[in-house]
Amino acid sequence: MEFLAVGFGGRAGFDHAVGRERAGRHGGTTVPHRRGWLRWFDPTTAMAFLHRIRRVSFVAGLTALLGLPATATAAAQSTRDLLADVRRLEDRVDPGVFKQIGRHADEEAYDALVQCSRIVKQPVNFKPLFLACHFFRGEGALEQRARVFLRDQAMDGDPFRSPYAMGSLIGFEADAKAELLHILQKCKDADMRAMALQPLRPIFRDGLSKSGLELFLDNYQPTASGNQSDALELLRAYPPEDSYPIFESKLKSKKVASVVKQMIALTAAAMPSAASTELLLDALKVKDESVQLVAVRALSKRSLTTHEKELRKLSKARHPELRFTVYQELARVSSEEAWSKEVDKMLKAKDPVQRQVAALSCASLPKLEAIDKLAKLLDDSYPGVRIQAMLVLEQLRHKGVIPLLIAQMGHDTPVVQHRIAKVLQNLTGEGFGPQPRTWERWWQGEGDSFSLPPIEEILRRARERERKEARQETVGSFYGLPVISDRVIFILDTSGSMKEPYATSGKYGTKEGTRLSTAQAQLSNALKHFPEGRRFNVIFFDSFVRRWQEGLVDMNRAHRAQSLGFVSRQKATNATAIYDALEAAYKDQEFDTIYLLTDGMPKDGRIEDPVLIRKAVRDWNSLRHITIHCVSLGGHIPLLKHLAADSGGEFTVVQ
């Protein structure tokens, strides 16, 4: 047995080979057995395996005796011998054999790989088999045959085989144009057609034909066909006289995906003209509220006043963000007298969206009248209404709002208390924090004699306060940001760059750690000190989003232990889909605060453009008023700074 092990580089190599054979037979997972590895094989399989060991051992021993390099071993095996291995062992064969066959790069090797594709059945073998076709690049007719072979395998319809064949075909890039177009036009599998779009986008962009635009719109899928930012850039490149008739047809079609109709509306919104306005009006009639929302927001920036009837219909929509935007647009297109009466009704409406719009509309009323109406909304059951009322009161800049805000601070949630403290600071220049008793004592001392300082003075005091207050690490904090919310979501980046060493010996880690391990330690510390009874969730993201729970859960002993285990198991890999992670978080209707950590700009996901991501979050927050605290690892990331500033959160850079 020791002699047999020579061909595998010693006993350890032999054990590895045995594990590899065992893995091949059991779906790619090594299965241990305390009674020995031979129990896994029947006599016929065992003899075939020992025969293979003898041959490999003999060749390796001869190589060593002659002083040849180890790579000569693979070359010593002919295509015929390698194919014989595949026929004998089938899915138990070492996947590296396909690479060895491909290296011969001749017609015999091509025919052998085609035969292999009929022999192997397990997905673990599909990727190396199809990638071996890349050895035919530059081989003229053989390369073309290899591409056609991959095309046919991609169109086969096998849910495991087809994606691997498609991935290998995409690797040929522009050389595979004909095969990819064939898939796009003939393949019955929508997923394969969507994958074919991504490498073909440069062709669509250069050609800009009407037929190309039709193909793109009919087959686009987020992620599979590339990110939405690039797709929008492509749509905007088409001349309006060519694209608008097609856009109009697609908006009316029931077969076109919702995401495509959204992109059409976004394209029309970016090109102000009479024709694009007509497209947006068509989008209002699409039976999809996400498309209608894009159209209403775009029309709100134009002076059109003829679509009040359509807006009235949409005011009963299920989507709260759509209703909120619609009511804001109704305020613009309605007469002043009619809207004033409507606001009075909305102040008492059951729908919190209407009450929030009413609060926003109070900004145009005389100050004392506005304060009187907003005071009733400060104690609303819906946090978004209370925050909206508070923000309008800040805009009014009247000292009469100060005692109202102080009184409200005494019995609101932690997050709203901090919001009130910030508003009071912006009005008075004082920095007492979320301490209602301190504010009460101060107001009792000031009373009638107080007058609001000029804004310049308030800003000067804020700068002076920041210089004096050195940030201290606090219990229940995340990278120094105190975790004050009782409904919080932590969102952390696990992209490949998070493997980078944490190159500092500062208070957040040492040189021995990585960015990810440091972030895991910081999050674990925050979770360990997060009070029981408060609600939370954890989301990790790279190219994909992983939520610990579908929604917020109460902190208790079991959830603390489970969440800490979830945090510790994360690995760094893939890219940085920031938009997808935020979108997943906003699907939860309970939370009020996000702690977001990343070490890079968006890369991958439905949207990569930081401008579009910031716009999407501002749109979501127009109704929700979610506070986003951001931590940037390794350098300044402008997107994070904007997200924090837009939402009233804090931004910190950890070098």
Span between N and C termini? 55 Å
Q: Which structural class do the helices and strands define?
A: alpha/beta
Q: Number of DSSP strands?
A: 9
The count of helical stretches stands at 33
For the largest beta-sheet, the strand count, sense and barrel status come to: 7 strands, mixed
Overall mean confidence score, pLDDT: 84
The low-pLDDT segments are 1-75, 470-475
- Proportion of strand residues: 5-15%
| Gyration radius from CA atoms, angstroms | 32 Å
3D structure, described in words:
The protein is of the alpha/beta class. It contains 33 helices and nine strands. Strands 3, 4, 5, 6, 7, 8 and 9 form a seven-stranded mixed beta sheet that branches. It starts with a helix and ends with a strand. Residues 1-75 and 470-475 have low confidence and may be disordered.
